[in-house]
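Sanity check record (used in CI):
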Amino acid sequence: MHKMFRYFSILVVCLLMLTGMGCRKPAQQNSKLYLYNWTYYTPDALVAQFEKETGIDVVIDNFASNEEMFAKIMAGGNEGYDLIFPSSDYTAIMIKLGLLTELDHTMIPNLKYLSPLFREKADYDPAFRYSVPYFMGSSGIAVNTQRAPAGYERTWDIFSDIRMAGSMSMLDDMREVMGAALKHLGYSGNSIDRDQLQQAADLINTKWKPNLVKFDSESFGKAFSRGEFVVVHAYPENVFAEISKEKWSSIDFFIPPEGGMMYIDNMVIPKGSRNLEAAHAFINFIHEPKNYAVFLDTFSLPPTTNTGAAAFMKTEQPFFSIEDLSHSDNISDLGSDLELYNQLWQVIRYH
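Expected output for Extracellular solute-binding protein family 1:
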């Protein structure tokens, strides 16, 4: 959940081939469904319910980054899975490379519950020919209100506040940090304009970076909970997971009003899947509102993608609302233009 474990940095030393999966039967009693999802992103309760309702055994492998997932798929791992959960930029890449099976919408009637905001943001597959959303979320800013000075700015420019110098961190993620600066300057978080990108880099280098302890995408949640940071650029689920609920009221988490960088995690069926019926059934099962509510309640997330889930949710105060995402940009695949970011990020990160 590029989310809950998007921040893990994986060095892929070699490409691994999946072996031993064997042939599988069409969806029927005692058949199997092989999922490849982000770590800790598939609630056990939903898996058990799906198995009970369908008689299909669900087998789950996990990945910690899109890069890890993609390396395995490119090494032939698509032959081992029926359903994969890539983020939108990698979904776009997989569509371009012809790695995905076109979906049969007649088998997914719960597509009717997809939210209007999601439909607006899903420009990588606007007709949902190859993908259905699993969750749409965003990074933001978490502030320890018991330690922060009064009157701090609830925008990305909080990182310019010298009163909190030496007690703040931002994600060690090029697209997230550059995107935050671009959005604060009023530009698209996916801009490929050289002048706009340079302005964003200058803002980070001269105003934000001097006040940061570090760029951190691995331990920010634990560090924040221990009081090492007062302000962190963060995924909310990682921050709140480290803090007892009775202390949540002392945390101000917000997505700045100028917007930030969103993520959309999708469900896709790779070419080579031998259990198409079961894969479609799982997608439809997830988007049954009462089931989707279980998923959201498990992680205290808002109903950003499914319009029917709110009526069944038990979580009273999710970490953010769907309205908070209205000005955010989904991280897009930039192709060769990504090198423009890489060049500036090297200066930001290592000079």
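Residues 45 and 78 are 26 Å apart (CA to CA). If this sentence no longer matches the regenerated tokens, the check is flagged for review.
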